[in-house]
Amino acid sequence: MMNEECGVVGIASRNPVSVSIYYALRAIQHRGQESTGISVFDSTLCRIKTHKSMGLVERAFGSRDLDKLKGNIGIGHVRYSTAGGSRIENAQPLTISTQFGEISLAHNGDIVNADALRAGRKKEGWAFTTETDSEVIVRLFAGELSQTKDPVRAMARVMRQISGSYSLTILVGNRLFAVRDPNGIKPLCIGKLPSGSGGAGSGAINGASGGNGGGGYIAASESVSLDLLGAELVMDVQPGEMVEITADGIAGSIIAPGAPRAHCMFEYLYFARDDSVIDGRLAHEVRESIGERLAEEYPVKADMVVPVPDSGRTYAIGYAKRSGIPFDEVLIKNRYIWRTFIMPGQEQRDINVRLKLNPIKGLINGKRIVLVDDSIVRGTTMRRIVNLVRSAGAKEVHVRVGCPPIVSPCYLGIDMHTVDQFIAAGRQIEEVKKEIGTDSLGYISIGSMVKAVGLGNSLCVGCLTGKYPVPPPDNATPRKTKQKCI
Amino acid sequence: MMNEECGVVGIASRNPVSVSIYYALRAIQHRGQESTGISVFDSTLCRIKTHKSMGLVERAFGSRDLDKLKGNIGIGHVRYSTAGGSRIENAQPLTISTQFGEISLAHNGDIVNADALRAGRKKEGWAFTTETDSEVIVRLFAGELSQTKDPVRAMARVMRQISGSYSLTILVGNRLFAVRDPNGIKPLCIGKLPSGSGGAGSGAINGASGGNGGGGYIAASESVSLDLLGAELVMDVQPGEMVEITADGIAGSIIAPGAPRAHCMFEYLYFARDDSVIDGRLAHEVRESIGERLAEEYPVKADMVVPVPDSGRTYAIGYAKRSGIPFDEVLIKNRYIWRTFIMPGQEQRDINVRLKLNPIKGLINGKRIVLVDDSIVRGTTMRRIVNLVRSAGAKEVHVRVGCPPIVSPCYLGIDMHTVDQFIAAGRQIEEVKKEIGTDSLGYISIGSMVKAVGLGNSLCVGCLTGKYPVPPPDNATPRKTKQKCI
Amino acid sequence: MMNEECGVVGIASRNPVSVSIYYALRAIQHRGQESTGISVFDSTLCRIKTHKSMGLVERAFGSRDLDKLKGNIGIGHVRYSTAGGSRIENAQPLTISTQFGEISLAHNGDIVNADALRAGRKKEGWAFTTETDSEVIVRLFAGELSQTKDPVRAMARVMRQISGSYSLTILVGNRLFAVRDPNGIKPLCIGKLPSGSGGAGSGAINGASGGNGGGGYIAASESVSLDLLGAELVMDVQPGEMVEITADGIAGSIIAPGAPRAHCMFEYLYFARDDSVIDGRLAHEVRESIGERLAEEYPVKADMVVPVPDSGRTYAIGYAKRSGIPFDEVLIKNRYIWRTFIMPGQEQRDINVRLKLNPIKGLINGKRIVLVDDSIVRGTTMRRIVNLVRSAGAKEVHVRVGCPPIVSPCYLGIDMHTVDQFIAAGRQIEEVKKEIGTDSLGYISIGSMVKAVGLGNSLCVGCLTGKYPVPPPDNATPRKTKQKCI
Amino acid sequence: MMNEECGVVGIASRNPVSVSIYYALRAIQHRGQESTGISVFDSTLCRIKTHKSMGLVERAFGSRDLDKLKGNIGIGHVRYSTAGGSRIENAQPLTISTQFGEISLAHNGDIVNADALRAGRKKEGWAFTTETDSEVIVRLFAGELSQTKDPVRAMARVMRQISGSYSLTILVGNRLFAVRDPNGIKPLCIGKLPSGSGGAGSGAINGASGGNGGGGYIAASESVSLDLLGAELVMDVQPGEMVEITADGIAGSIIAPGAPRAHCMFEYLYFARDDSVIDGRLAHEVRESIGERLAEEYPVKADMVVPVPDSGRTYAIGYAKRSGIPFDEVLIKNRYIWRTFIMPGQEQRDINVRLKLNPIKGLINGKRIVLVDDSIVRGTTMRRIVNLVRSAGAKEVHVRVGCPPIVSPCYLGIDMHTVDQFIAAGRQIEEVKKEIGTDSLGYISIGSMVKAVGLGNSLCVGCLTGKYPVPPPDNATPRKTKQKCI
């Protein structure tokens, strides 16, 4: 299982924004469940106020917390992280104070040369208080700001130094900016909020004064945040662009031009919600189209097209449409499973797969099944599911996968850091098929996937090809700041 | 939204059962999320040990809790309840001590004459320590047991007194029984657990010694508990039957004969998991068949069949199959929403519907949509969803409903106690259509629904017709024990 | 360390009582920290409402909880219990419903023949839902009430059956009673609450409407609850007396006459707060007087009288006064220690003693110390303290103890159930002295202690003599309901 | 009520130190209950590992947490803070990473010119991630370190810049330092830990491998931490001194010489534990001596000397000794009161005083009472206590106070920031007497207090005289970083 590392939001309005940011974050909760935070600029105190907490947005914020975050401009963040760093200290937004006031930053992505930058600055006498990429960015930005006095020029200088993926929302005092890396790897879009009392998101929580209806603009990792607030999708922040957002309008300029577009294809295939539109393409359409193309590339005689719920459903619908084989949901998901991983032992893992997914024997028994999922990473889960379907009496099990074989690590924001975790790395498809125990196995081809996305060469497919839009870090292993032991 | 009131489990094995009961309860977690509990007979202490807790099974039990519940025979319970009674004191199983040892009971259902029975016994000097139906049953049972000395004869006497729905698992000291009411209203099935180390559910949690692999038998509200443990479905407990369950076998007898079968049709349509087999019929098949029949009864020219996720999906698949209209999932569910109801105000409720469900505008815009769901109770949610789909640009919205119009309260275990909550009560379909704001509205007919279930007249359809298998309580309003204020 | 098992409260007023009960319970929090509860009769609902929770009173009740407990008459309880039974199910008050309405009971004490009574009733077909003595009492009471229709006559019958210690506050519907066992073993006093806005306890919590100022009467385990609420001590409930308490007055009658008074001497010596007046005698005075008598019985040449804080302080003040040796506090208590017992290993226990108590070396070094404490049970703590004082350089350590040697178990409400835990059981004083490692050891004599209490033979000194006011249970071992394993 | 702001610890040993630091922190828990943390240098990872948490030390650390903090050298901190800043982000130790590795700092005190320093550095382009003084110190230190490459020279430079009170323990990679400000305002002492298995603190928690017995040295805010671990008090860190601490020894040098000693007299009078020895003087002796001098300065004919528990006890003992008036404890403290302040309203506060303190009427009635406490700040609590004692029937109430009248704010580490909170500021003693409602009022004179402390002019008495050892901040109001709102 892969996991996205964060989602960001920023809103400027004529009314208080904390409740709207809260809702916008809930819409992108799937991008990170470890911690969350909201920062708003409180013009009465002339300060940025922040509330951060571990866990889901709905638990992190009560109506009192939102009430206390008074201000018409602010940013928000949801965070996913790998085990080690699960601490409140790493929660975002990260706020620093400088001679120009406070700066608060929310970041989605991965800075490839963060260690090098950090080391370089340390040599100049800098000290860092966290281990996050976000501190590197915001501190560089503050440094440049003290020279240029201008946020846009400062960020332009920063972007010449940092390499990697980053979609940012930034408060510089009472000004809000949205920034996207030169390749546009991570998504970031902008919407126009409705005005008037009928505006979406206008209600307050528990009678809190928050709410909205004050119009303005929103930046968010995914368009679903806009949908929830009734906002109209205006544009995607362009690769290398910095956009200033106010209650009255938006103003952007490309400050890091010249890099090729390299949108993360995994957003379309797995991370983004089915209903998100990223750089003009609807994830649902991409997935259904891949399903159809899979049916063309890997036809098979079968009785039933069965999705692995919920991730494989849209692919399976496409496959069924094109192939004419009936679609049915005969793997039933238990909706009340949050934790299973705490239990060790092979048998445990088997029962845990079954705890999540139960095959309907009566409908599978004796049937030829086309099992459709979005992707295979380690292959262990798919092997168990195939096993499950076979144990339910399937005559044949044919696996179709919406993502081409993953063979290279990702350094740009996806939690797949080492080669040896990929079942497809260094293996022929035939070998993978055997490992998984399926009668046939069809991965979508890179070409078809690219066509389904419909953005030509504008995709990052580093995890499929090992060719990345930005150079990988020197050591090309999972980064971890180390200090020399003298 | 309706809610089932509880699920029960009972297991006898040659190995410890607490871990197996834990898993069996997780499989039926959908039947109640308020509280849960497990009781096992500890033959070393010669006592019944119980662990109860508020909340989900996965949070209620740690591996230590399960380790402490040592014993090869036990019962379990998950509980749903209406607001007022959300207290640990009401959690089940309920254990009492008598001259014959301890008795522990888990109950799914509703005793219609509980108040009358309670009042009657009070007049004889009895005192009750809880307000639950379960205490009425177990106390009556203990009373009869002291007379008859035999659990089966005692329960037969109890069943002559109590009226209503009840599926029970009972520990009488170290003996386990499963009981189903004379009409068989609530489901209860029995399975044979696998023996040997390869047995499902054999693993222990965190190395706990629990686990299984010791064979034996299980009784559970739904067959999905059996599936999870690798158990084979042996039989449904028959209406009026009491079955003794041991590690070596089962022995049942009909102790309350003569009542007509009246299986709750709502189990097939909404409560039970899609993959449950109840009294021989698979819920998934029933639902898909109803979808097909809906397509026959209410055909319409449209571009897309869209389920209300997750409850309408199987119906929609059936409707799409029969009608030939393409199935697509264009209402996207946010999987991270637990609480929304805490926020008052109309606009809040609107945003909360959208928080849960987002329509994909790009695919809905200009289309004729057939919206399929399992049932309509109050109609408020459906009205909001129709509104949502229209606001996404649908040209037409046609609603198809898998359950016939609900017009009468349920006194037998479903949380629908008052007539005035039903949008279909006292209204013509045409009026409901207007209320909901749809272009056409088709409820499945009772006849077709009954055919789809396939059990003939063996169904309780009281909520559709007002005719119940057992007489409703005297006052025919939500029961609530009251004491006279002198 | 010994621990008292519970404290009770009951209040009737013309104003709501929940806040006053809350305060009254906080005043006797030392009598039990495991769980707490309040029951009030809500005359609008004509029902008894109860809130129970684990832990301290201040954490168990928020202002909302108290607001919800609307009613002008109610009872409360704090509970201590031995490890096994630490569960919310055992928290009090215990409420049952009967033909005459609801009955709620709070109990301090121990029913010696509870098992026998329980067994007897089970033979008649009764079933019990808890394992508490309280259920035995309240169920017997309900049974007798159904015969006599009169609470006083019913309780008189109950008191002829139960044997042991019990101070009770009882709600019978909207009537409040206070009851004390025939020997008056556990304390229970009655006070008159102030009327008018200036009344103590009149304030509400967080603006809650609770409060008081409505006059009325209170029953409580210790007079400190009365002090806190500004109530005037009116009387002690007499041994064998049942008192009805209303907002307007009190009316008592001796319903179990003829037993000799046997007030628990341990209340005076250890359990009760220093400022409590029990049966006319102030604990502080008793303790100081014992200290003085100790100085007479066991004079010694020394430089300093040092209390073991906080329990030995008042004794030490008395000893210092009479002996003329200067009093000083040179064992300093760390006020932030709640848990230490979780850490195993001998060295751990040593550091844990020091964590709680630090000797001031500079003042102890080279001095002859008289160390004064209230009592010695196991002797382990005292041995460690003596060791501590010696390690600080004391030239001599002389121990003086305010309670005569404890040699027999208590079956009447104190957590000392087995003989082998007493260091003084079966040992000469000289041996105990060696065990503890002190230069001299003086226990107050029984005679002097009795004189200091000043109530003549009206004391229970069972733990000192093995002669109890009521016969001990048959097995004379820690009671534990067991069921036969057939 | 005043509150100390923090306590620090540092330990170097040949064995793991986390458990020893844990105990050392528990010994000084009274210096701060808001948050706590421990940092150790893990030589395997070559990194500093930190665990921080809100709340008491005993709740913040489980045995697992301590086990994870592997390392033979480390620091710890307990923090008190004023309301606003109660957040985990402000918990200490604060760790930063630099070119020379990681640096972790624990700080007790207040940097008077922190805002100015912060502003100055911001102008140079620095950015700060917290609002704590500690970040100012550690960042300046890191900056100087990058120039000097030597911790001692770096700290000497820092000390020329910062002004205020500071006792520090610092990890610079795997080196431990203890630093005290040039005036020695806050205490900091050094002890030698015992070697061998018999060493105090050698036990592990729950079998954790931590423990000690490995000898080495400890720095701590108070000597009670040394006592608990069986360490021998070696020296106080001298004003302006920096001491390097290793497992094998200590090496200090005065790096900020020339400032007059100005030990906070409040440590002796209130903050430090009674059993602490600070700069050679035992708090208990100082307090008892002040009590005696109070008896000389303000003799009175009375029946009883009564301490306000627990803070006035030692003073009262001294007063009683010298005056010959009997000492008695007749104000009884409820040991289970943690929160009372949440309840608004005057009457509430009255009941809350009584909740904490109950006067024994029977012993006070008709008596002339000398009430002794350590200090009076606002006077509100003392007025309520006097009132309490009068309402118990005291014929006369004479108040004696161990601290001279407080009339000036403290900028050096004590939570008394504004003049208007002091009852003695701008009032004659006679007026204060009337305010408090006492028959006579005697504050110890500054001269006598100074004599009792016994360190001559080496005291900071700024709060008594308005003359501080370091210049107060420019605005001379409670500091609060503000950013200009453009």
Keywords:
23 strands, 16 helices, homotetramer, 6-stranded antiparallel beta sheet, 486 residues
Residue share in helix of chain A: 25-40%
Compute the separation of the termini of chain A in Å.
39 Å
Main sheet record of chain A: 7 strands, antiparallel
Number of strands of chain A: 23
Catalogue the unreliable spans of chain A: 198-211, 341-346, 477-484
Given helix and strand content, the structural type of chain A is: alpha+beta
Structure characterization notes:
The structure is a homotetramer of 486-residue chains. Helix content of chain A is 29%, strand content 24%. The first copy, chain A, contains 16 helices and 23 strands. In chain A, strand 15 (277-278) and strand 16 form a beta hairpin. Chain A is globular, with a radius of gyration of 23 Å. The two termini of chain A are 39 Å apart. At the A-B interface, helix 1, helix 7, helix 9, helix 10 and helix 11 of A face helix 1, helix 7, helix 9, helix 10 and helix 11 of B.
Task: Produce a short descriptive summary.
In chain A, about 30% of the residues lie in helices and about 25% in strands.
Give the SSE layout.
4 copies of one chain form a homotetramer.
Chain A: E1 7-12, H1 18-27, E2 35-42, E3 47-54, H2 57-60, H3 63-68, E4 73-79, E5 94-98, E6 101-111, H4 114-123, H5 133-148, H6 151-161, E7 164-172, E8 175-180, E9 189-192, E10 217-220, H7 223-228, E11 232-236, E12 241-245, E13 250-254, E14 263-264, H8 265-271, E15 277-278, E16 281-282, H9 283-297, E17 304-307, H10 313-323, E18 331-333, H11 346-356, E19 357-359, H12 361-364, E20 368-373, H13 380-391, E21 396-401, H14 429-436, E22 440-443, H15 446-453, E23 459-460, H16 462-465
Parallel strand pairs in A: 14-23, 17-20, 20-21, 21-22
Antiparallel strand pairs in A: 1-4, 1-10, 2-3, 2-4, 5-6, 6-7, 7-8, 8-12, 9-10, 9-11, 12-13, 15-16, 18-19
Helix pairs in contact in A: 5-6, 9-10, 9-15
